[in-house]
Specification:
11 helices; 2 domains; about 270 residues; five-stranded mixed beta sheet; Nucleotidyltransferase, domain 5; alpha/beta
Length: about 270
Amino acid sequence: MAREAVRKKGVPVALACRTFGISETCYRYEAKLSNENAEIADWLVRLAASDTTRRWGFGLCYLFLRNVKGFPWNHKRVRRIYCELELNLRIKPKKRLVREVPEPLAVPERPNEMWSMDFMADQLSDGRSFRTLNVLDDFNREGLAIEVDFSLPAARVVRTLNQIIEWRGKPMGIRVDNGPENVSAALQTWAAKRGIGIFYIQPGKPQQNAYVERYNRTVRQEWLGQFIFNTIEEVKEHATRWLWSYNNQRPNMGIGGITPAMKLKLAA
């Protein structure tokens, strides 16, 4: 009302403030957070629209802004803007069967102590099936490779592992399931020559390979299940881009809200 009196009637500021019982400081106050709030909203909208991050919830978005980008914004403030933008997705609760509590999975204490690997399957737009081989370092949840092709026999698995070892170093062990590629003589012979242990989980117990199973879900939700690919080359190109983003930009809840690259650097 004081501003309207000054603007429309030409009343002096001091007189308008005395009339309406407010201080001149209050009259001249301007919010300082509006620009920052707009910047926060812009970041959140971009994360929600990006192909690689649109499946992220609030937790990952906040950790990305705080730990990866280095913004000092408060958790409650970012959450408030996130909800005002209506970016929070409703999660439908699922009915779950009661089961025995599994034994806790061992947490490696250094890089290359234990790797995990597993296969996934999908289809191109023309119906042709392809597979992916996902290799993960359990220490920092770093994706070491996503090998993509129509067929991934044991010889191809061995070749992929050799390529990873050339730049990353040799692991002490690799945890796998009981798939035909993993129980093959070729993989076992290669591991024996390299001095690498192959640790098989029990049949029907995927929770014993929980790190890579959780990673597989992220792969499925954040890129593999988001697009229809026409060629195998498109899948390979997208896998390479997403893997770099996962390792260097995506905060991981399992390692304290930092990226795999950050944890690897801390361990150096």
